[in-house]
Amino acid sequence: MVMLPLVISIIFFILGLLGTVLPVLPGAILIYAGMLVYGIMTGFKSMTVNFFLIQALILIIIFLVDFLASLIGTRHFGGSKQAIYGAGIGTLLGLFIMPPVGIFVGPFLGAVIAELLLGKQLQEAIRVGIGSFIGIVGGTLLKLLMEIIMIVYFFIQVY
């Protein structure tokens, strides 16, 4: 029965998309897992090794986007190397201290605090923090788009 594996996969996909916006769940990993579960439950009849390699490549790119988004936003708005580190530390702390909002607030605060510690003016530090925030939001939107592409490719492959 193909219906049960499909339903289970769709649940994984929904949780994965939610996990991208609410980072307490590993978004892209859940989407990939949903595809693996479908493959295992159906004996990989409609899925090839190439399919899984392409999906794994997209998954790796999603991780890179996650890592680089705040960095690029911070740098684009004139942030120092310390602000980039501050945004990274802020991201990690934000995830643990106040999930899921912390993923957006943490990088902003981390970049702002780092710039202030370097002696920058508050207005300039806030501008860098906004750049970090814009990078995170842009990265999240890009990750959602890539995850939707993964899901669409899954349905093309399966049907």
Alpha-carbon Rg, integer: 19 Å
Largest sheet data? none
Q: What is the arithmetic mean of pLDDT?
A: 90
Distance between the termini: 15 Å
Order of helices and strands: HHHHHH
Structural class estimated from helices and strands: mainly alpha
Strand percentage, roughly? under 5%
For the secondary structure, the number of strands is 0
Q: Any overview of this molecule?
A:
The chain has 159 residues and is mostly helical. The protein has one domain (3-158). The chain has helices at 3-21, 27-42, 49-76, 81-97, 102-117, 122-158. Helix 4 runs antiparallel to helix 5 (102-117). The chain is elongated, with a radius of gyration of 19 Å.
Summarize the structure.
The chain has six helices and no strands.
Give me the secondary-structure topology.
Layout (H helix, E strand, L loop, with lengths): L2 H19 L5 H16 L6 H28 L4 H17 L4 H16 L4 H37 L1
